[in-house]
Design goal:
It is built from 16 helices and 12 strands. The protein has 450 residues and is of the alpha+beta class. A 10-stranded mixed beta sheet has the order 4-7-8-6-9-5-3-11-1-12. Strands 2-10 form a two-stranded antiparallel ribbon.
């Protein structure tokens, strides 16, 4: 007799218990994978490509919302260790509706492609963008989100400045090293400065250093140059600048890790209770197995193997479900709500099946009990359908913003972590009751009443 076949038979003998346990582990691992994906996205802000690690951000030391004189650009450009400099101002406009919010900047155009050399811009489009005052450069994902095309005219509504720039799309850029950067828009700083009456101010300076070795000295030199002026500066790496926004959220990583641990502890309790109940019910069968010649280690492997198999099925569905879900939403969320309905339909079928199995047994009989089961199953499927569609829309909205969580995804490392957690839950939940059952004598197991 092969243990694998016995494990499968034992796992499927009580279909309701097995399905509900698998679904509970699936939802838990899905949640853990989602939290891990958010953590990975936040941690990626502390990383950067080789070229972005040479970029510095110069802003006012008193507040990032206060502007710098544009004349600082020429001063910084002339410093040793500086390769290129551009001025960048956060415009903060919206497109048609306040909900259509994305990153949009007014930037000086000279050497833009040199400072942001991790962007890929076709040469003809770059020249067209630079050659027209009202031209705008747009990220590929932002183009897809709103269905824009090159040559189309758009108008941004100013929320910070009393100015609504009328722009024409002349170029589209891509960012192969970080596609989340493709949800931004850049127009001419001169256009904004002229509309505001030529105040000659810029939000910050983006500086490209000659080499990594020059970065520390260059940061200190820039700040010393403007020390004791009306607009003192603070220079930091682009990595540190980005992480400063994460720090504004408080200790988010610790909070998400604490939630993940709470979820793991919860599924451990659920699985532990389920497996303890299953093993107690089969204590008499353990005596029969021992009578047939099964040794204690074989009984232990049989019982623990069943728990691990159930947990791994839930882990695989949950982790792979999270990975495919976020990849599917990322690809389809800008292409219409029909894909949201397709995703919601899948969630609805899963919820309906779980509800159907919840009322298995006596409610599977004919008559009014079967009718109650059908009605409750339909209600469960509709509730899951609505929840699935709402989840799709909410995640799609978050992904399509140019914020910290744009385009987050489940990595293969997270996928492996989810499977490891599921296997660990299976082992931890069944080991103690399985040990107790495997060590019982045949007489003791036959007398056991649970």
């Amino acid at each position: 007799m092969k243990l694998a076949r016995l494990i499968w038979k034992n796992a499927t003998r009580n279909a309701r218990r097995t399905v509900l346990t698998v679904l509970s582990i699936t939802v838990s691992i899905f949640l853990v994978s989602s939290l891990r994906a958010i953590l990975d996205k936040l941690e990626s802000l502390g990383q950067g490509s080789d070229t972005s690690n040479l970029r510095l951000v110069v802003h006012r030391s008193t507040s990032m919302t206060e502007a710098l004189p544009i004349k600082y650009l020429e001063t910084v450009q002339s410093m040793p260790g500086v390769k290129f400099v551009v001025g960048v101002s956060w415009f903060g406009g919206v497109y048609k509706d306040p909900q259509n919010f994305f990153a949009n900047f007014a930037t000086t155009i000279d050497h833009f492609e040199d400072v942001y050399d991790d962007y890929r811009i076709p040469p003809d489009q770059l020249a067209a963008w630079k050659g027209e005052r009202s031209a705008v450069l747009v990220g590929r994902k932002l183009m897809e989100q709103y269905g824009w095309r090159v040559g189309q005219r758009i108008t941004l509504t100013g929320t910070i400045y009393p100015f609504d720039p009328e722009l024409i799309i002349r170029g589209v850029y891509t960012a192969p090293s970080d596609e989340s950067q493709e949800r931004a828009l850049f127009f001419h700083w001169e256009y904004l400065d002229e509309a505001l009456g030529r105040p000659g101010q810029v939000g910050s300076l983006a500086v490209k250093a000659v080499s990594a070795e020059t970065v520390p000295k260059l940061m200190d030199a820039i700040d010393r140059t403007f020390h004791n002026t009306d607009a003192e500066t603070k220079t930091e790496t682009e990595k540190a600048f980005n992480l400063s926004f994460v720090s504004m959220l408080g200790n988010v990583k610790a909070l998400l890790n604490a939630i993940s641990l709470a979820v793991v502890f919860t599924i451990l309790l659920v699985a532990g209770n389920t497996m303890a109940m299953s093993i107690r019910e089969r204590t008499g069968e353990v005596a029969v197995l021992k009578t047939l010649g099964f040794r204690p280690h074989a009984v232990l492997l049989l019982l623990v193997g069943e728990a691990v198999m159930i947990a791994l099925v839930g882990g695989i569905v949950g982790a792979l479900g999270a990975k495919t879900t976020y990849a599917f939403i990322q690809i389809t969320s800008t292409k219409g709500r029909v894909f949201g309905l397709i995703y919601a339909l899948g969630v609805g079928l899963l919820g309906g099946y779980g509800t159907w199995m919840l009322f298995a047994g006596s409610f599977a009989l004919h008559g009014w009990r079967k009718m109650v089961r059908l009605v409750v199953t339909l209600l469960g499927a509709l509730a899951a359908l609505g929840a699935g569609f709402g989840f799709y829309v909410a995640v799609g909205f978050v992904m399509n913003q140019s914020g910290l969580l744009a385009d987050f995804r489940v990595t293969y490392t997270t996928l492996g972590l989810g499977l490891a957690i599921a296997a660990g839950v299976g082992i931890a939940s069944a080991t103690l009751p399985a040990l107790r059952a495997s060590r019982m004598s045949i007489a003791e197991a036959l007398r056991y009443t649970g």
